[in-house]
Each structure stands twice: as structure tokens, then as C-alpha cells.
Amino acid sequence: xxHHFTDPSPFTDPSGSGLSRxxxxxxxxxxxxxxxxxxxxxxxxxxxxxxxxxAVTESGPVRAALTAPHSPDPxxxxxxxDWAALLxxxxxxxxxxxxxxxxxxxxxxxxxxxxxxxxxxVDTVVLAVSLAARLDAARLERLLALAWDSGARPLIVLTxxxxxxxxxxxxxxxxALAPGVDILVTSVTTGQNIxxxxxxxxxxxxxxxxxxxxxxxxGNALLGDELLATGAVRAQDGKGRHTTVRRELVPLPGGGxxxxxxxLRGISLYDAADGxxxxxxxxxxxxxxxxxGDCSHGTEPGCAVQAAIQAGELxxxxxxxxxxxxxxxAYAASRTDARLRGERTNRQKAITSHLxxxxxxRDRQS
Length: 366
What we know:
By secondary structure, this protein is α/β, with parallel strands linked by helices. Among the domains are: 19-101, CATH 2.40.50.140; 104-260, P-loop containing nucleotide triphosphate hydrolases (Rossmann fold), CATH 3.40.50. It has ten helices and 13 strands. It has helices at 26-31, 33-37, 137-150, 167-177, 194-200, 215-223, 273-279, 281-287, 304-310, 316-365; strands at residues 41-49, 52-57, 60-66, 83-87, 93-97, 103-107, 115-120, 124-130, 153-159, 182-185, 204-209, 248-251, 257-260. The protein has a six-stranded mixed β-sheet with strand order 10-9-8-11-13-12, sandwiched between helices. The longest helix has 50 residues, at 316-365. InterPro entries: G_CP_dom, P-loop_NTPase, Ribosome_biogen_GTPase_RsgA, RsgA_GTPase_dom. Belongs to the TRAFAC class YlqF/YawG GTPase family. RsgA subfamily.
């Protein structure tokens, strides 16, 4: 379910409205022409809360009601980072969403077959991983799949280097799990590599990670101010409370915007086949050299994946987690397909019922 960027470059708005600071582009401006002709104004959603949202418009921030067409599918609900069409006035109302060019999606926490969008129109996904705790390889691979599948660029930021005994060793371990991903060791306390991280970011950046990983502290360092709430971390397991209780979008001093998110406990994949292929590109590459095209990488002769494990070039844990995530993703996809089939069936039943009622009425009139 990979999304692709169309026009990430900022747009210098001749009106000087300031929306370009939040990522408004010429492509978006052209696409908004019909909405503008209808008296609507562009807005970017900064925060969503119980049927209302905080949004940024050409004339400044507003609090607006969410009156866009209702859908039972959370994938279609407005979220932080969305661009929207707003009806201005004494009681502003959000009436439509613009198409997303990227979206971070996980399976709904309700365990339904729906997906949940964590953030929209993102350029870089910063995966914050604390060096104060042991690296959870399986969790990092899961986060990477989520990030790659969004269509954004993942960036692993190892935090709290000032309290880590051997940051370089953890960096090397993370590099083995993340082919093609940049990894940066940082410390908010000492300022290590904060300037490097700032230079790497452009457009819209979202912070993802576990509670206690130092996301909000990292965000405050990037913002140059204590704008995001931070909290203490338990010494016994390195975990913290959810000091960020909802997703919010704030502008960065040097340009672009930052989306902070609550710490993620559950990260269930949702239609993330492309993301998994990217995360486990080493296994995918080895599989192409297997003797059999349908090799399950078990006991088949001529299996290049098993040969790599025997040679110490690939860990069995990584292969096992790859298989686990593939099964999980396939199950989520099958549930989604079943739900869509059910919705189509229900729509067809409603149409049939309506036609029958029409025919009965017509017969009574004849």
C-alpha cells in the first residue's frame, strides 16, 4: 500500500499567506482551484479531538467542526497532517479532504479489519530508539515496515547516547536490521548530532517510537523550545508514560513541520507488503538465488536463505520474524478483503430491497 510523493517542494505563495511554511505546494494550490471557487479555503489539520480539529489556514489558526462525509472506515477519517477544504465563518467547518500523497497506517487498535492513519502527507519518519534500553530487533523491523510502506523516508535516531555504554555497537546492530536506512546517534542532553538531524529534515517529519524513547525531548530540541510535554522514564525497563496524548503538528524554526505522536505500544501491520519487502530486502535478494522459485526456506535443497544462515550471514531470528510479519500482514489483508466483500454485499442487498419496494409500490398503483 505504498504511496508516492508528487510534489514535496515548498510553494512560495504570492499572497504571502504563510501556508507554504506548513508544506503548501503549487500542485496543491492548483488542485484546490475548484474548492476555492466554491468559497472554501485550504487548511492543514494540526490536531483532531472529538469531532473538532485545530487547523492552520491562510489567515491563521482556527478551531473547526469535522463535517466531512462520514465513513465507518477510520482510513478515511481526518487526521493530523491532512490538507483540507474549510468553510470559513463564525463556526468554521471542514467539508472535504485533499488526496494524501503519503500516509502512515497501522491496523486499528480496536482489532477490527480497518486501518488507522497515524499521520498524513509525511516526508520523513523519524524512528526514535532509546540507547538506554536493549534494542528490540523485532519491534524495530515492525516500525520500519510501517515507515517504508507509508511512502515516506525512514530515519532511525538513536537517542540518549549520553547514558549508553556502547552506542557504536547498537548502531551497528540497527544497521544490520535496516538496509538502506540512515542511522544517527544523538543526545538531547549533550546536543550530540542535533544539528546534523536538523539539517537532514525537510518538509513534514513525524516522530514514532515507544513511550520513553525520548521522542518529545528530541522534538523540543528540534523546535528549540519546550513545546512538547515530556515525562520521566522507569529505571527498571526504560519505559515511560504517554506524555504526548494526541498527535499534533507544529512548525520547525528552520522550515518544515513536525508531527509528534503518542508512544506506540501496539504496531499491527495493515496491508504493508511493500514495506516488508523493503525492510527484508536482504532475505528477498537471497531468495532469488534459491533453486526452487516457491522455496519456503525450510528444508528444501539449494535454499540460499538457509545457506546464508549456516554461513552466519543471516540470523534465524530475522528469518523467523520475517515469516511472522508476512503471516500477520496476509491475515490483515484477508480480513480487509472479507470486510470489503461484506460491504459490497450489504450495498447490493440495500439496492435490491429498494427496487423491490419500488416494484411493490408500482403494483399497488396499477
